[in-house]
Write a structure and sequence with these properties.
With about 80 residues, the chain is mainly alpha-helical. The chain contains five helices and two strands. The longest helix has 16 residues. It is globular.
Length: about 80
């Protein structure tokens, strides 16, 4: 079994944990690992952005996950 060798933490919960909670809260009821891995680079880039850079994109830090997965939530 392969395992990611990078552990990323943002705040009190790890980024992976935040993604898991987000996906289960919006109704996926599961954690599609491949979907998460495909978008992880974008999530990390946005997490590293300053609040001013996020504001220029029209999003708040708390809205990063919904922004990244917006195409799936538009239904």
């Amino acid at each position: 079994m392969t395992r990611d060798n990078v552990q990323i933490g943002m705040g009190h919960r790890s980024l992976n944990s935040r993604i898991d909670v987000f996906l289960s809260e919006v109704g996926f009821g599961m954690n599609p690992g491949q979907l998460r891995r495909a978008r992880l680079r974008q999530i990390i880039a946005l997490e590293c952005a300053s609040d001013a850079e996020l504001a220029a994109l029209g999003i708040a830090r708390d809205d990063i996950l919904s922004f990244v997965f917006r195409d799936l939530l538009a239904a």
